[in-house]
Amino acid sequence: MAGTIQLRQLTSLRMGGAPVCYFHPRTEAELLAALEQCLRRGLSWRVLGGGSNLLVEEGTLPYAVIHIHAPGFDFIERKDGASLRVGAGVPTAGLLAFCRREGLGGLEFLAGLPGTVGGAVAGNAGAWGKEVCDRLARLRVVSTQSAAMVRHRSEIECAYRHADLSGGIVTEAEFELRPTSPELIAERMAECCRLRAERHPPAGRSAGCIFKNPPHGSAGKLLDLCGLKGRQVGGVEVSQRHANFILNRGGAVAGDALRLIRIMREAVRRQFGIELDLEVRHWPARSKVA
Ligand SMILES: Cc1cc2nc3c(=O)[nH]c(=O)nc-3n(C[C@H](O)[C@H](O)[C@H](O)COP(=O)(O)OP(=O)(O)OC[C@H]3O[C@@H](n4cnc5c(N)ncnc54)[C@H](O)[C@@H]3O)c2cc1C
Hints:
It contains six helices and 20 strands. The chain is α+β, with helices and mostly antiparallel strands.
């Protein structure tokens, strides 16, 4: 289950080097064995889901990467009423297809969102004013402190693009949904996809929004007002469609993206006095600081 891999193969931005150790556990027992191995070897670790919200540097990554992705943790089980138990490795698109088939509404706003259920929960993914945590009932979480524990929604602090997992790894999530006709779900999903197609760049080598929106504002609008659309550094470019997306034009490295991000952040600071926080997760390589 351990081995080496270049993370550029597993991230939507197509950037990133090799971690000192890579695990792709398919069961909780394998996940616990991976954590034990990290502890024994004195390695810290990071969790990789679908890799759609990551900016990973090239070179050697001085930590283990634990990949929670199908195959593994990829079950969906309908419970009583309108609740669903879902493995963290299920692609968000797979969960939505299941919800549509079963007539369970509430997560349609995620239509078109790449990545896994684990990643969506960990980042409290959201769109069009709605967030994953609004529909969350409980999580099953594994950590080095405890083999596996169930955490109820009331015990999890959720904020804008953040769920406090206290360093734990999500292995499954339970969602509380609403009986809704499949036709209505399909209609709502199509509308969300239409809005995405209109406002976001076409599917390509991006990682979604680079910055979080500042309170009462839109990072994309501020970046647009700074005239940054189309700005390039090396192989990366600010999207012409949405100024909060950067695209890998091919062959770009994380250093290009980090330089462009610095330019974007400085432009907004200079013009509006606003400090933008990263939404994308930055994974540094050896001897670099996050
Ligand atoms: C074209 C495009 C559009 C996007 N649009 C949106 C949008 O509208 N809204 C939005 O919120 N995001 C958006 N994103 C970003 C991204 O798709 C979401 O944040 C997604 O939920 C990340 O899931 P992932 O599995 O890819 O996570 P990853 O990128 O693999 O990881 C993201 C974070 O979650 C952690 N993580 C992943 N899995 C687990 C787990 N099982 N347990 C604990 N931690 C875990 C990782 O350690 C990391 O910190 C977009 C991205 C792209 C490329």
